[in-house]
Amino acid sequence: MNKPVDTNSGLSRRGLLTAAGGLAIAAGAIGAGGMAAADRFTRRDQPASPASMVEPFYGVHQSGIVTPQQTHSIFATFDLDTSTRADVITLLKRWTDAANRMSRGETAQPLGQPKDAPALDGGSAAGLAAARLTITFGFGPGLFTRDGVDRYGLAARRPEALVDLPKFNGDQLIAEKSDGDLSIQACADDPQVAFHALRELLNLATGIATIKWVQSGFTSPPPAGGTTRNLMGFKDGTNNPSTHDNDLMSKMLWVGDEGGWMKAGSYVVVRRIRIALEHWDKTELGFQEEVVGRDKAVGAPLGKTHETDPLDLDAEDQDGNPVIPATAHSRLSSAAENDGSQILRRAYSFNDGVGFYAERWPPWRQGMMLDAGLFFVAYQRDPRTGFIRINKKLASLDIMNQYTTHVGSGIFACPPGAAEGSFIGAALFEGLTG
Fold first, then answer.
1. What is the spatial distance between Cα 121 and Cα 43, in angstroms, rounded to a whole number?
2. What are the Dyp-type peroxidase N-terminal domain coordinates in residue numbering (predicted)?
3. Residue 297: which of 229, 385, 213 has the closest Cα?
């Protein structure tokens, strides 16, 4: 195990940065994404109309991927308990109908049942606006095979891009916070609306699937607009690709004709990244900026003036050192450093109280620490040329790894959007018999 960087020691910041390859603990992937500022939120200084609070569920693509990012998220995975494919289809039909209803601000199921039966909707969102609720579904590798068993006759239809994620340098993954056969992400501008959606979908899964793990998250837009900040205090989202660029989205986000039943879908990788905030908060400002490669207050790349100025990866200081250090997170995660690879991030901060951490810290830093950090969510056309390529470099070289630990992980195929009268992922099951 490596001791965290002591910024009060006699070592120079520049020396620590250039030596980061031998110090890596876990890949950061913290400060280069999120949604672009102009894409994120409706204006807060204008009252929202009921129509503006509704994000359509049905469509070519699933909602919640290029949708302007909402302020709250809850991500959950499920393991399938059933042995029959018909039950899986039944569940997906139930979820599709309920998700469409709840996205319009309605109950998960039509009400009117007798008083002596459990309610068909728990009612925790009664009277609340739809709050731009989106529900995005994903299929994990376990839907196709689990422990080598093809439970539902789907193994031959597993997409090539739905690979098992490799073990990255520094991973300390917890099984209870990783993987799953199915995934759901509910996002809304009201946390109660998002949580209500998860509860109702969980109820509809009774007897077919069991919830495995859940991660909630939040992000807060500045009142005057602009880019949000993560828990490290840096602007998070400046370099995310624009969702308004349809050509770019077709190239790096949406699956093409080669994807078969996944055409118009996307792949999502999620990572629960705990940040050692107590350690970060005691790090000098100048070193923080060199770790990220940006000015903390303004968000500009080091050596530049404005947040949206492009990274100048060739600029050198008077001593011949790169202005943006070789181990800076913004450099290593940039498309220029990764053969043009890009991903679309919809990351959320999380705060889950405190936890005891001893595995990676020396005795003088062990004990109860904030269990907080970043729930990293990234969509892409192919994880092999997207997240995996980028994160291999980050896991080995990013100096931010001294402050972060990846403890949860998952990869899911998010099928195209459902058409009215059909259900999510319907094309996967077409033509199957038996």
1. 31
2. 62-218
3. 229
**Average pLDDT, stretch 51-60?**
91
The C-alpha atoms of residue 414 and residue 159 are separated, in whole angstroms, by: 11
Q: How far apart are CA 152 and CA 71, in angstroms?
A: 37
Structure tokens at 123: 């009612």
The Cα-based distances of 397 to 12, 27, 54, 329, 370 in angstroms read: 18, 8, 42, 9, 25
Considering only CA atoms, which of 135, 27, 34 is closest in space to residue 75?
A: 135
| Phi/psi-derived region of residue 395, left when phi > 0, alpha when psi is between -120 and 50, beta in every other case | alpha
Write the DSSP symbol of residue 402: G
Given a contact cutoff of 8 angstroms between Cβ atoms, the answer to whether 391 and 167 are in contact is no
pLDDT at 265: 98
Yes or no: say if 327 and 20 are a contact pair by the CB < 8 Å rule: yes
How far is residue 416's CA from residue 200's CA, in Å, rounded to a whole number?
Answer: 22
Q: Is 393 exposed, middle or buried (0-12, 13-18, 19+ CB in 10 A)?
A: middle
Give SS3 for 236.
coil
302-341 confidence digits (pLDDT tens): 999 999 999 999 999 999 999 999 999 999 999 999 999 9
What's the token pair of residue 302? 């080091």
* pTM of the shown model: 0.89
Among 36, 87, 90, CA closest to 236: 36
Decide: residue 147, CB within 10 A, 0-12 exposed, 13-18 middle, 19+ buried: exposed
Q: What mean pLDDT comes out for the span 99-122?
A: 91
Residue 121 and residue 110: Cα distance in Å, rounded? Answer: 8
